[in-house]
């Protein structure tokens, strides 16, 4: 059973998400929070598998709450997906750099929300369809200057190649087709790369691909 915590200052949004999620046989909403402070308290108390976190909330915003969750070693298994009203929210890239596993726009289709919850719990990053490459490239361009690629010296050539493909938004299946390997092999390469770099999840791997200079903003493969 996938345990979800809803953090949003709009009760109607929480009610809608709860109704959809609780109707699934493999998902349950274990708690709700109307602000970031309450979200943190509930995360520490309930230890959900995933938090659907609004970016803009009172007392403590979603970005700050996400940083506190992802920096707490005791909460390392808790995944965070940011919720935003607009696809090009100025805080989206910063949210991913803060440790969020991805983001969703609030008016996303119900099926996509359910897919997102399941995908993130399985270890995949989640970005709303159609905006992944464009958005990451745009916000990566505004981030700090790329560091020397020395941070990637522990990777094999194939792992660097796979990391670059993750960085431009390809799924494991797409990577497998590009490299002419099986999806399982592609997933294994991605997992090993994450372990070597200490990446929390696939979303962090994307950020590292840009910050190391392995992928440059605007390169879409």
TrEMBL record:
<keyword id="KW-0805">Transcription regulation</keyword>
<dbReference type="InterPro" id="IPR001789">
    <property type="entry name" value="Sig_transdc_resp-reg_receiver"/>
</dbReference>
<dbReference type="InterPro" id="IPR011006">
    <property type="entry name" value="CheY-like_superfamily"/>
</dbReference>
<feature type="domain" description="Response regulatory">
    <location>
        <begin position="3"/>
        <end position="121"/>
    </location>
</feature>
<protein>
    <submittedName>
        <fullName>Response regulator transcription factor</fullName>
    </submittedName>
</protein>
<keyword id="KW-0804">Transcription</keyword>
<feature type="domain" description="HTH luxR-type">
    <location>
        <begin position="148"/>
        <end position="213"/>
    </location>
</feature>
<dbReference type="InterPro" id="IPR000792">
    <property type="entry name" value="Tscrpt_reg_LuxR_C"/>
</dbReference>
<dbReference type="InterPro" id="IPR039420">
    <property type="entry name" value="WalR-like"/>
</dbReference>
<keyword id="KW-0597">Phosphoprotein</keyword>
<dbReference type="Pfam" id="PF00072">
    <property type="entry name" value="Response_reg"/>
</dbReference>
<feature type="modified residue" description="4-aspartylphosphate">
    <location>
        <position position="54"/>
    </location>
</feature>
<dbReference type="InterPro" id="IPR058245">
    <property type="entry name" value="NreC/VraR/RcsB-like_REC"/>
</dbReference>
<dbReference type="Pfam" id="PF00196">
    <property type="entry name" value="GerE"/>
</dbReference>
<keyword id="KW-0238">DNA-binding</keyword>
